[in-house]
Write the structure tokens for this entry.
Amino acid sequence: MKFDFKLAPIKYDVEKIYHFLNPDEEDWNWSRYIKNCYSELNKMDSKEKIKKILIKVREENKKKLQDKLFNYKKEFEKISNKIISEFKEILEINAIKTHKIDILISLSPINPYNLEKKEFSVYWNFPIKDMIAISIHEIFHFIYFEKWREIFPKTTIKDFEPPSLIWHLSELVVPAALNDKKIQNVFKYLHRTYEEYTKRRINKKSINKKSINEIILDLYSKKRPFSLFIKEAYNFVLKHEKEIQKV
């Protein structure tokens, strides 16, 4: 698997920041992260105003952006091959179909992936270690979805997007896998689950007062083929779909 590192186009950053300032009804509201970085922005702002602000940020940080891209790429490439190898072992996958992924160094602090375009973004002003951790998280998604399709061939790209239950499960599985010793031995970093999943939102009697996240971690910790873990985890989220969709 190869990676192409580049600065995100201004248009890309404008669209992402506008979207996260104005999330769809079914999306999580993470607008606070945008406002933390750009206090002058609010929900009512136009794309034109966002673009003007971002162009100014780019002009004022041109050298910093180039230096960050260079240093991040250099550090990431030290471990990328080993990480991919461990992903294949964890997921029990022989060959990866995704041959190249574009990594966009972005002005947006929220970092989505796009399965169809084979790309994801990383916020430029995070520490390099955090940028690498985000990259590992996003890359795992691409390979994980290949494994998912191997188990459930009829799954479509749309099923891998929010608010799909399959997407929810993927966001629960990724941190569990990334905190696996196999990955931690290559890149030590505590990968946290989204706080939305750590809240106790499911019927307490049925899961012994554990959060959604804790249940998935328990399932992951059992020794068995990864495909069996996925089937058990999927059965769990299907059983509690209504509660999970409230997250």
